[in-house]
Design a protein that fits this description.
With 248 residues, the chain is α/β, with parallel strands linked by helices. It is built from 11 helices and 8 strands. Helix 5 crosses helix 7, helix 7 packs parallel to helix 8 and helix 10 packs parallel to helix 11. It is globular, with a radius of gyration of 17 Å. The chain binds 1,3-dihydroxyacetonephosphate.
């Protein structure tokens, strides 16, 4: 049985005050048998790590450089994330792929760096609306997944959470139906399982894209949906906690 996982991706929102308040509210809440991770903006990582120290809440960076260290102005390394107390990092979020032109190879290199620093990687994959309408969803998510399998090896997925985030559902209020999401999750799981049956069975595949308290339970009830990566709804602790409860 896979333990459910819920992550809150704050994106470029918040303030120091919000970081302490939000984290405090989540740490103080009764969270059932679900793993919870928060992904605040880089400047607030220390606040969130401090406010969640000693709790079950894990903290992660929203991105990590593909390089170990060096002259890469504006970048943050996986080692730095680890140094300030992070246990995870996102890789390949669609906003990074789209606005920063991150290629599949670059995302795979980021995952390799994240894993090399003993952090859990949360690998995001997902198709655009155009790609879905062209009937290319399976091809696109399979290609994005394949790049990481080729670079890091299938057993690396023992330390990877896979997030299916259809780009057309992110921040749009347009959620994939539970059936649509389940179909892609099952496909991703079958790819993992073809590489290694144990990895196929144990990898958490979570859904992201307009998850709200009102639709979370139905999504998380699907056989291959192991939780969610939450954007907008994680900025209100009550909503985020309701989503965690739906997973617990
Ligand atoms: P929304 O929940 O705002 O659609 O964002 C999802 C997401 O991108 C999480 O990483």
């Amino acid at each position: 049985m896979r333990r459910k996982w819920v992550g809150g991706n704050w994106k470029m929102h918040g303030s120091r005050q919000m970081a302490s308040r939000m984290t405090g509210a989540i740490v103080d809440a009764e969270i059932g048998d679900v793993e919870v991770a928060l992904f605040p903006p880089f400047p607030y990582l220390r606040e969130v790590c401090a406010a969640s120290a000693g709790s079950k809440i894990a903290v992660g960076g929203q991105d990590a450089s593909e390089h170990e260290s060096g002259a890469y102005t504006g970048e943050v390394s996986a080692a730095m994330l680890k140094d300030v107390g992070c246990r995870l990092a996102l890789a390949g979020h669609s906003e990074r792929r789209q606005y920063h032109h991150e290629s599949d190879d670059e995302v795979a290199a980021k995952v390799a760096q994240i894993l090399a620093n003993d952090l859990t990687a949360v690998l995001c994959v997902g198709e655009t609306l155009r790609e879905r309408e062209d009937g290319r969803t399976a091809e696109v998510v399979s290609r994005q997944l394949r790049a990481v399998i080729d670079r890091c090896g299938i057993t690396a997925f023992g330390r990877i959470v896979l997030a299916y985030e259809p780009v057309w559902a992110i921040g749009t209020g347009r959620t994939a139906s539970p059936g649509q999401a389940q179909e892609v999750h099952a496909l991703l799981r079958s790819h993992l399982g073809a590489g290694d049956a144990r990895i196929g069975g144990s990898t958490r595949i979570v859904y992201g894209g307009s998850v709200k308290p009102g639709n979370a339970a139905e999504l998380f009830a699907q056989p291959d949906i192991d939780g969610g990566l939450i954007g907008g709804a994680c900025l209100e602790s009550a909503d985020f906690l309701a989503i965690c409860a739906a997973a617990g």
